[in-house]
Design a protein that fits this description.
The complex is a heterodimer of chains A (249) and B (502).
Chain A lengths: L1 H10 L21 E3 L5 H10 L5 E2 L4 E3 L8 H5 L5 E3 L14 E3 L11 H7 L3 E7 L5 H7 L13 E3 L8 E5 L7 H10 L5 E5 L1 H5 L13 H4 L4 E3 L6 H11 L4
Parallel strand pairs in A: 6-7, 6-8, 8-9, 9-10
Antiparallel strand pairs in A: 1-4, 2-3, 3-5
Chain B lengths: L5 E3 L5 E2 L5 E2 L1 H13 L3 E10 L2 E9 L3 E7 L3 E3 L9 H11 L2 E3 L42 E6 L11 E7 L2 E8 L7 H7 L5 H6 L6 H16 L5 H29 L3 H22 L8 E2 L2 E2 L4 H27 L2 H7 L7 H7 L3 H6 L6 H4 L4 H4 L12 H20 L22 E8 L4 E8 L5 E7 L2 H11 L8 H8 L3 H5 L1
Parallel strand pairs in B: 3-6, 7-8
Antiparallel strand pairs in B: 1-6, 2-14, 4-5, 5-6, 9-10, 10-11, 12-13, 14-15, 15-16
Helix pairs in contact in B: 5-6, 6-7, 6-14, 6-16, 7-8, 8-14, 14-16
Classes of the chains: A alpha/beta (249), B alpha+beta (502).
């Protein structure tokens, strides 16, 4: 018992002060990309060709952040002149369209209805379903319950039963073998409910796009209220997106 | 006289023509013979070239041996005599429709159609919902009840189905059925352009990103004649050991949580975050995605980053010691850990367990010691072995490896450098070649095997995650245990569902 208390004192309080105090991530962290649409067509072509996710559309002059896995290839190949990743981790959006970054001045924003804020603003219970991902999104979602992020202090929690949940958090590219389990879990959640797509896989198939072992894209199966890009999304990206969605920040 | 097998090195490229092409009687004799004398399977898979099916095996004793044969349509299964062949034979049946006659447990592995349009060995209709529609081993009797868990589990973890046959609290048999995360990685790799390969490989299993990308990079280097210099090798080792640290610390925290000892569960959980942040510092991603590529490391200021990481590790050392003492000295924890989920040395050997689970049951095998490459050649690792094979042993092996990895990182040194020459994003691979790379991922022996065709394109990319060997170990560990100890045993193995499912 004494040892437990002593260790407790040694550990102290490690909970982050975010969002009250801002956090800056390390410089090398690849967050929101800044895109220079005044680049030469040759440079844009080079970056588009090198993108493993085919996320850069030179014709439409658009970068799809939902396909992006933030690998940094375009930044490296283009020496940062066309695309340059900042360390801004605030990436969540409420409409898929907003992840298509083009040369209009677009902001990544989350607009959720007053109804949702009123219903879930003080208590949001989420059921997470791993629809075939690599487990990185799952790991970085799990970490939100640990003391540094401490999700529960915001009234957000992950629950074991879909019956107790207000919403579904989907990770993974929705494999053929997980489609039924995902849909059944969604049906088991009582109305009103929300759906969150977390990670490049759930938004666009991620690294596995084009595989014949993937089922239909999530938007054809479920109505998605919040998209969180990343591979995996940094826990702060998820935290920011959830808090914004609930109107807490 | 045809030599019955070729000795090969971990990560060395060879001409496919030099692989002994045996008759299938000789092939099976060879396999049986080697495995009965302490040999263990590293790779055993089918592939097809110009319409001809082939079987290829890589077996390890003190060396690595490779041999192959033309695939028959069916053959007498070896599983009945040697349990190590179980999943390998089923996987070959599933992927290439080759029937292992009299296989005692012929069931699907990942639930997908075979690659060559042959009739499905299991007689399944893939238009239907397959997983769950599976012949679970049933025990008859009035007192028996079956408990099914998954694929959607209580916590935030990967999907899989566990079917327990119990009498009261006692588990008589556990059947583990996976395949829910099958994304078709092996097929994707041979069908997609090279620019996608590193991203796909890093996505096989997020918590094994570094080990998988190391195996991939070393394979491509071997096939293209590229050399990774000393600095690249050191940073790869640093990343691999950081990955090991993240996961072992996370596991100790999870084990603490499962015995309801919440202080160390919280502290270890938070400390895992510190190590993930070190990978973030090194690579810009908490799992190390985007760091390791053939011939190079995509990270600047390495000397400074190494120093920062070493300082942070030194600072965490005391905390880790105190928290682990708290955990391992608590009588209530020991009474849950000790003699729970025992896998005997004999059982582990018969199943061919690898990694932490194998070492915890007395099997003295660690790829870093047995088939060292790169940084491990000059910096030897001593496998950490325990003998009791219980949850305690698997936790203790993790703790010993945490200390070992931290010492290794503390001793690393880097000179100032300008990084590697970028010679172009894609490389030409040698035609008609073969390479197998082994790496000690944090779960155990990971192996990638690549075959190229006569034009230098990928013919076959075979990935074997350590979990492929170890899931059966978990099933055995549960026999005779209370079902309430399942989460504890499961976390003491902590195997990969997605690494298995591919």
């Amino acid at each position: 018992m004494i040892k437990t208390l002593l260790t407790r004192f040694e550990q102290g309080n490690k909970t982050s002060a975010y969002p009250v105090k801002p956090i800056t991530l390390v410089e090398d962290y690849r967050g929101r990309p800044e895109i220079n649409w005044n680049s030469t067509p040759e440079l844009m072509h080079l970056c588009a060709e090198s993108c493993p996710q085919d996320a850069i559309d030179e014709q439409k002059r658009c970068v799809d952040l939902g396909r992006c896995v933030f690998c940094g290839t375009c930044e490296r190949v283009g020496e940062g002149r066309f695309i340059n990743f900042t360390n801004d981790f605030e990436l969540g959006v409420s409409a898929r369209q907003q992840l298509l970054l083009d040369d209009e001045l677009n902001q990544l924003s989350i607009n959720s209805s007053q109804k949702i804020k009123k219903l879930f603003g003080r208590s949001l219970q989420l059921r997470q379903v791993s629809a075939g991902g690599c487990n990185a999104c799952e790991a970085d979602t799990n970490v939100l319950s640990t003391p540094f992020f401490d999700l529960a202090r915001f009234g957000i929690d992950f629950v074991a039963s879909p019956r107790h949940a207000d919403g579904l958090l989907v990770t993974g590219p929705i494999t053929v073998n997980m489609k039924t389990a995902l849909l059944k879990t969604y049906e088991a959640i009582p109305d009103p409910k929300i759906v969150i797509a977390s990670g490049a896989c759930s938004i666009s198939g991620g690294p596995f796009f084009g595989s014949n072992q993937l089922a239909d894209p999530i938007e054809t199966l479920l109505p998605v209220d919040l998209f969180i890009p990343g591979c995996p999304p940094h826990p702060l990206t998820t935290l920011h997106a959830l808090l914004r969605f609930l109107g807490k920040i | 006289m045809v030599s019955t097998s070729l000795t090969i090195k971990n990560g060395a490229c060879i001409q496919r023509a030099s692989i002994p092409n045996l008759s299938f009687e000789q092939f099976f004799e060879n396999l049986k013979d080697l495995c009965s004398k302490d040999g263990k399977i590293v790779q055993y898979f089918g592939y097809e070239e110009h319409g001809q099916g082939k079987l290829l095996a890589v077996v390890r004793t003190d060396n690595l041996f490779v041999f192959e044969c033309d695939a028959p349509d069916e053959y007498p299964s070896l599983t009945g005599q040697d349990a190590k062949f179980n999943l390998f034979e089923r996987e070959i049946a599933e992927q290439y429709g080759i029937i292992p006659r009299d296989h005692p447990w012929l069931k699907s592995v990942r639930f997908h159609e075979n690659y060559c349009g042959k009739p499905d060995v299991f007689g399944q209709n893939y238009q239907e919902d397959i997983p769950g529609n599976y012949p679970y081993y049933s025990i008859l009797g009035e007192e028996i009840h079956e408990v099914g868990v998954g694929p959607v589990h209580a916590g935030i973890i990967e999907p899989g189905h566990f079917r327990f046959s119990c009498t009261g609290e006692k588990v008589l048999h556990l059947e583990i059925q996976l395949g829910y995360q099958h994304r078709g990685v092996e097929q994707l790799l041979v069908q997609t352009p090279p620019k996608r390969w590193p991203i796909i490989v890093e996505g096989i299993a997020g918590d094994t990103t570094i080990a998988n990308s190391i195996c991939f990079s070393r394979s491509i280097e071997a096939l293209s004649g590229l050399q990774a210099d000393g600095e690249v090798q050191l940073v790869r080792c640093l990343a691999l050991e950081l990955e090991r640290l993240c996961n072992h610390i996370g596991d100790l925290g999870a084990l603490s949580g499962d015995v309801a000892f919440l202080p160390p569960a919280s502290y270890f959980g938070r400390m895992r975050g510190e190590f993930l942040n070190m990978l973030l510092l090194l690579s810009g991603n908490r799992f190390g995605k985007g760091l390791i590529r053939p011939g190079r490391i995509l990270s600047g200021n390495r000397k400074e980053k190494l120093r920062t990481i070493q300082t942070k590790c030194a600072g965490l050392k005391k905390e880790i010691q105190h928290v682990s003492q708290l955990l391992f000295n608590a009588a209530s924890v020991l009474s849950r850990f000790e003699e729970t989920g025992v896998v005997s040395n004999q059982c582990a050997d018969e199943l061919g367990l690898v990694g932490v689970a194998g070492r915890a049951s007395g099997l003295n095998y660690d790829v870093r010691a047995s088939f060292p490459t790169d940084y491990y050649l000059k910096h030897k690792i001593d496998p950490q072995v325990q003998l009791s094979g219980d949850v305690y042993a698997r936790a203790k092996v993790r703790l010993d490896e945490i200390i070992q990895s931290m010492e290794m990182i503390a001793a690393m040194e880097l000179k100032e450098s300008n990084g590697e020459e970028i010679s172009g994003e894609t490389l030409d691979l040698q035609p008609s070649s073969f390479v197998v790379t082994l790496s000690e991922g944090w779960r155990g022996e990971l192996a990638h095997a690549i075959l190229t065709d006569e034009t230098g394109k990928l013919l076959r990319y075979k990935i074997k995650d350590p979990s492929f060997h170890n899931w059966n170990g978990l099933a055995q560990a549960l026999r005779g245990e209370e079902i309430s100890d399942f989460p504890l045993c499961n976390k003491s193995f902590n195997l990969s569902y997605c690494g298995f499912d591919l």
